[in-house]
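Hi X.,

You mentioned you wanted examples for the new student's onboarding notes, showing what a folding record looks like when two proteins sit in one file. Here is a clean example. The first protein comes first, with its sequence line followed by its structure tokens.
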Amino acid sequence: MTRKPASGPRRRKAPAAPGPPPKRAWKPGNLLAPVPVVLVSCGGSRGFPANLITIAWVGTVCSEPPMLGIAVRPERFSYPILRKTGEFVVNLPGRELARHVDWCGVKSGRDVDKFRETGLTPLPATRVSCPLVAECPVNLECRVTKTLALGSHTLFLAEILAVQVSAALLDAKGRLALENAGLMAYVHGEYAALGPTIGRFGFSVRKGTAARRKRG
């Protein structure tokens, strides 16, 4: 009996996708969800008071240099602060701050001192003049590099100059355990807690420790 020649290494097949659900046309809109829940701090210099603003349209835009973007309506109180100072801090709150975040989103800095009214603690940043929020486990200090008027919003593109993290998120080996920060997501007008981890990047093709060594 003639044996078939051995073939090359077997490639793992992509997992079969579930059957497609029925679709309906929907009006064009911002249904890209979820998005991160953030508190952006600004002001505290050039005669502007320190203020907190919630931003729904925020995201990473570049890795090298590290950059992100926030989109702000020109009528918001913080808009001229951002334009004049060219800097801000993106603070990532844990879910225990959900009520504080929501309150900051419905109140205006024209009428209230949000730091004082919420009891949140302003801390000096290392690279920008505006304060960061001490109670937030992650703080990204940003300087604006470019602004783009898009329509209802203006996009502020900014370089991340420094990052501060809660020491409690570092394990014994110095690894940042961001999964322990209790971060939130914003989904179609609602705040949501993040659920359990379902996999790490590349888990669909990884096979044991040998595959990890080969990829490394």
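Then the second protein repeats the pattern, sequence line and then tokens:
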Amino acid sequence: MLFHESHVLGGSLSVVRVLDYLASYGWTISGWFPGRGPLLAESTGALTRQGVREKPIAFSVAGWRRPPGAGARLRRTPGYLRVLRQWLLDVRPDVVHANSLLMLPEATVARALGLPVVVQVHELPSSGRKRDVTLRWAAAVADVLIGVSTPVSDMLRERAGRTPVLTVHNGVHSPSRAQTPPTTANSSWGASAT
């Protein structure tokens, strides 16, 4: 699991809430975090392994300019990606779940290692060149794209090409209606971590 934030917020919280449920089916889950924060502690018991490194990569001009500045961020990026690559080699996951478009650099490293990649998208970025390039990048890296709502999935389909797009609403079925997690790539399941 490639978490896009280190705080206990929306998209990451929806994933943390299903970790114990997935573990009850025998799944082992490891998590990569772009820095230390409350999410790391919140997910400790549910994750087999955790990788942590402060993420220097930003996604806007303002983000690159934030301290320590664009130059330092650029110099730190190769080291960050090398540490992630080594962590993925050590963990050797069966599938890598990137929990946001913000995790595309990390998903690209996983893809370069030959690992299957799922990119979950819960953002609805404004239309424009940046969104188009980002969605094409996501489709090129992912084996499957997951939108958390019909509008998000519709946006993904516009740029997905041959990459399958599934809609998986956040949440977990109540135990009385719980389903067995899918065993094939063509299955869908009502949880945010597939």
